[in-house]
Amino acid sequence: MYCLKKFGDKRRHRAPMERFLLLLLLLIPMILFGQEEIFTVTDPDKAYTRAREMAFEGNYEGARPILLDILVEYPEYSDVRNLLAKTYSWEGKYREARIHFNQITLTDKTNLEVWIADINNELYDANEIVAFSKVTKALEHLPGEPELISLKKKINARLLKQSKAVQEEAVALKGPNREAGNFKHTLGLISNVDIFDQVFDAQYLFGVEYQHQTKIGKVIPRISHASRFQQTGLQYEVDAYPQIDKKNYFYLNYGYSASGIFPRHRAGAEIYKMMSKTMQMSAGLRYIDFRESAVTMFTASVGLYSGNYYFSARPYLTPRNNNPMGYAGSVLARKYGKTGDNYVGLTLSLGVSPESQQLFAGETLLSESLLYVESQQILMEYQFTGKSVANLYKASLGLTRQEFVSQPGEFFLAMTVGFRYNTRF
Predict the structure, then answer these.
(1) H/E element holding 414?
(2) Considering only the top CATH level, what class is 177-424?
(3) Per-residue b/e over 183-220, b at no fewer than 16 CB within 10 Å?
(4) From the first residue on, what is the mean pLDDT of each consecutive set of 10 residues in the chain (425 residues)?
(5) Within this chain, domains 38-172 and 177-424 share the same CATH topology
(6) Which fold would CATH assign to domain 38-172?
(7) With the C-alpha atoms ordered 40, 46, 52, 57, is the resulting torsion angle positive or negative?
(8) Cα 394 to chain centroid, rounded
(9) Strand runs (DSSP E) across 10-158, as ranges?
(10) What's the confidence (pLDDT) of residue 380?
(11) Are 136 and 142 in contact (CB under 8 A)?
(12) Which DSSP category does 202 fall into?
């Protein structure tokens, strides 16, 4: 017990000395570091060199306190403030960099390095208009400076590209089925004739439609009159394009006819969505009741805008029980003029689309079987406005090569001529 007590006493006597030595060891690095930082204000050039090395190594947080300390004593030291601004810009803190660049250019208007760094800071922040304003101002003080001229050309190219992208988006947001302009009412007349090289007599279709632009989208009721196979008939139809928002909308369709040369019922639904400024996609279905039977077709589309050009592709898939699936599809290319109302277009199709005419074999209507024959079509179209933009004209010319349903491997040719006139108010 005595030995343990004595040993404990010795530990209590030595503890203060040990604490003192430990504290001294901890303070030595702090003292040395403090001595190393003393020159930052007393020797600004040396401090700037050290801060510059740290900044170029990516140690922005370490360089900034040194630069700020220099500016407390030497606020007009432009190189120091320029480097400070650059550290913010390199780190993506464009607003903080802008404050310091502006402070320099207010007084030092011929410092090329600062102007270039300032302009690039705006470009990094995607402020091309502000960058253009600054490079123009810099050239007033440094006229003919090659680096500034090169920067101005670069900014001009960016602004031109942005303007083109805005135009493409404006066309894209209208959609391929929408006309430009602020007209709320459109009255349209439609005529179409199909001429065959054999077997079938010419077929005629005439229609009238009224388009009304509502707050939620466009509504288009339509009446079509057809003359086919020594028979005539009427079809009543309505299309609607309800708007979801600026980039998305629906297509809805319903039609009815009591005549045997039209489907009794037809319906369609599709949703269109802008995936980007230049890309649109859609997905939907079509339903056609041929009286003897009915078919449902699934469809989709992809549309791309490039400058004044529009391209799209659309497949149709028609499933049948115990029968092969029907395939059809088309690709479309259009070149627009100054507005979305003026364009030249070309459509190439394989298989029969839901909009195809119906054909007879004797007294038998070739209903949905028409959707499974081999068929190819090329269609050219030209839409333009008259002297008044309220008047819109569209002419089309197409050639179809189609297989006889009753004679597989045998084909007939058909030429389609169409004309449409719309007056808007």
Answers:
(1) strand 411-424
(2) mainly beta
(3) beebebebebebebeeebeebebebebebebeeebbbb
(4) 40 53 54 43 82 89 88 86 91 90 88 92 88 90 90 87 68 54 87 89 93 92 90 93 92 93 91 91 91 85 90 90 80 88 93 54 44 82 88 94 78 93 92
(5) no
(6) 1.25.40
(7) negative
(8) 28
(9) none
(10) 97
(11) no
(12) P
CA distance 54 to 59: 5
Place of tokens 């169409």: 418
CB 86 within 8 A of CB 55: yes
Instruction: Give 74-83's long-range contacts (Cβ < 8 A, gap of 24+).
Output: 74/44, 76/107, 77/44, 77/48, 78/104, 78/108, 78/111, 78/114, 79/48, 80/44, 80/48, 80/51, 82/111, 82/113, 82/114, 82/117, 83/48, 83/51, 83/52, 83/55
CB atoms within 10 A of CB 95: 9
pLDDT at position 19: 59
Query: What string of H, E and C letters represents the secondary structure of 109-168?
Result: CCCHHHHHHHHHHHHHCCCHHHHHHHHHHHHHHCCCCHHHHHHHHHHHHHHHHHHHHHHH
- Tokens at 61, concatenated: 């947080």
pTM: 0.60
Cα 344–Cα 315–Cα 355 angle in degrees, nearest 5: 65
Structural domain boundaries of the chain?
1-29, 38-172, 177-424
Q: What DSSP string describes 227-241?
A: EETTEEEEEEEEEEE
pLDDT of residue 418: 95
- What's the one-letter identity of residue 257? S
CA 353 to chain centre: 28
